[in-house]
Structure formats: structure tokens, C-alpha cells
Amino acid sequence: MEPLSFEQIRTLRSLKDIYGDGSFYSLEYRADHRLDEVLGAGAETWEELRARLKLLLTKGGDPDLSSGDGCTVFTVKDSRGHVLVGRNFDFRHKKSGGAHGCLLVRTAPKKGFRSLGMVDLSFAGLESRPGAEGFDPAPLLLSPYSVMDGMNEQGVAIAILALAHPGARQDTGKPKIFPTLAMRAVLDRASSLKDVIDIFSSRDMQMPTPRKSFQFFAADRTGRSAVIEYDETRMYVVDSPLVTNFYLAEGISDKAEGKKRYETAKALIDYRGGLMEKDQVMAVLRLLSQPAAGKENSDTLWSAVFDLTEGTAEIAAGHRYGSPLRFGLSDQKGGYE
Question: How far apart are CA 327 and CA 337, in angstroms?
Fold first, then answer.
């Protein structure tokens, strides 16, 4: 791999191991992640997109990008009228090697909005802990395109969830886009839920896995939220404050994975009249969290409460519900230095 740029070196040097055990990192992304060029690459397949990203951002390094699963997302308001999004990211990795922690990455592009997002390091392709022998930094440099959920300074949040359904491969003649690339475009460019829907509807979605599809939960600081879903060829938008890994659009699939979590969350939201404080949102996420044992998809790797009104996030990584950490957007500088 060619020598890193000064900005890329600064990015990697900003990496912090928050707990000192490799379970939760933070990263200030100070290099240009070149969204315009990535969107204009004309990639027809996931493999082509990966190759283009490697060429643009790592000069040919070989990270193993993937797309991840998520389990519960919902929107409420607190007593001050702040719009809060609660999110559990649930998955259990069976691989014995590699890095299994999570990463909070913050970006501040010149041509876009400041944002923060959460990355599953194993899905992003990090094969060893930073500092370990043979450590390859390439996945960290591609981390803006590995985000599983996040929010931007305009008060727009986006999250991805897995569905047991054949993946969409739209072919209407529009430019093609892939799940986490669409999420990157939302975080950089969307200032409202309408912008989110416009970004998705202006492109042909290409799911990278033939036997798995994904749905997307999006919300903005007005309190409106919606779920974007696909069958094999069409896109659907369903207004909803809650989603848990099954189709909300009618007539696509009768599979109801996550229905029990949905009913539990809905009952709690309805009981509170759609009003909860941050600690109550985190308590609901803890109630719905999955233990690190049992079936695959059973471990809650992180729980997040995004405050879309004030631009902050509280993250409980690795079931640390008693001491969630707070991150904000207000201290990020706009533009690359």
C-alpha cells in the first residue's frame, strides 16, 4: 500500500481505545472520504464498489467490507420536546480471530454535514486490534462507509436492519447504490426525512447478499420517522416510529422475526404516550437487549440514544448500561484541515 497522506495519518492517530480492552474505540476522521467520487464510480456490484473504495481511500489496501444486522430502532420525544432515537445493534460474531469491538467515527467533510456513526469493527474487516502484530489500518480509513447507524448535525438519523428475504437488485436505469453507501450519503447530505427518501429513491438499490435484504430506519428532528424497505425490485416507504427486523410494508413477507420485541417496545412507547427521557429510552433498550450467548444475532454490541435536537449521542457498548458515554457534534470542526 502506498504511503498514507498527512490527513490519513492524523485520522489514525486520533484512534482512542476508550475502555482499554478493545471493545469500544473512537475515531476523528480527518481525511477526505470522497463521497462524490464514490457515488460517481458507477459500480455495478458490491465487489466493484469495494475495489473502488480501496483505490480511492487506501491506494489498494484490502479491507473486507460487509453489511451488518440491527435489531431495534424507535423514536420518541422527551419532556423538553427533543426528538430521541433509541437503537440496539444486535449480532454475535462466531469468528474466533479478529477485532470484535465497535467504533464511533466522526466526520466533518467540506461538502457535507458533520456526523457521527457507529461501526462494527468485525464487519468492517478489522482483523486484529490496533497495535497488534500485523495490524492493517485500511478498514479504519474506510470506516465512513461501514457505519451501521448514526446522525448528522441537521438532526437526521439513519440505521440499518437485516431482513430474511432475497436482496433487492433494482435495475430501472438509475445510478446504482449499496446499503452502507446510501447511509453515508444520508449522513453527509440529508437535512430532512424527505432528503433521505429522495437519496434512496434516486438510485437503484443493490443488496450485496442474495439471501438477505435490509431495511432502513430514518428520522429527523421534526419527529417524523419512516422505514425504507425493498422487495426484490421495488422500494417502499412506511411511516413508523418503530422497527424490529420484519417487513412493515404489506404483502412482501409474512416472516415475523423480531415481532415479540416490536410488541414489547410498542407497548412501552404507547404506555408513555411517546414521551421518554434519555434514561428511560436506554432502559427500554436494555430490556430489549440480547445476551452474548445462544443463537447467532443474540448479542447487543451497542445501544445508542441519539438526541436529534441537540446533536448528541449516548452509547452503551458491551452492555455497559450503568455508564453510557456521551458524544457530541458541536466540538467537531467543519471541513478537512
Answer: 21
Cβ-based neighbours of 201, under 8 Å, separated by 6 or more: 235
Side chain identity at 155, as an amino acid letter? G
Tell me whether residue 337 is in a domain: no
CATH at 205 = 3.60.60.10
In this structure, what C-alpha cell is assigned to residue 325? Answer: 458515554
Torsions phi, psi for 180 (to 5 deg): -75, -20
Separation between Cα atoms, residue 218 and residue 83, nearest integer Å: 12
Residue 101: inside a domain: yes
CB atoms within 10 A of CB 52: 17
| Confidence band for 84, pLDDT divided at 50, 70 and 90 | very high
Q: pTM of the full predicted structure? A: 0.92
Q: For residue 84, which of 317, 277, 268 has the smallest C-alpha distance?
A: 277
User: What distances in angstroms separate CA 228 from CA 92, 139, 179, 222, one per listed residue?
Assistant: 25, 27, 11, 18
Neighbours of 41 (CB within 10 A): 19
Residue 335 lies in a domain: no
Q: By C-alpha distance, which of 115, 103, 109 is closest to 31?
A: 109
Residue with the three cell numbers 454475535: 92
Range of the domain at 241: 6-328
pLDDT tens digit sequence for 316-335 = 999 999 999 999 997 665 54
* Pairwise CA distance, residues 150 & 307, whole Å: 11
pLDDT category of residue 65 using cuts at 50, 70 and 90: very low
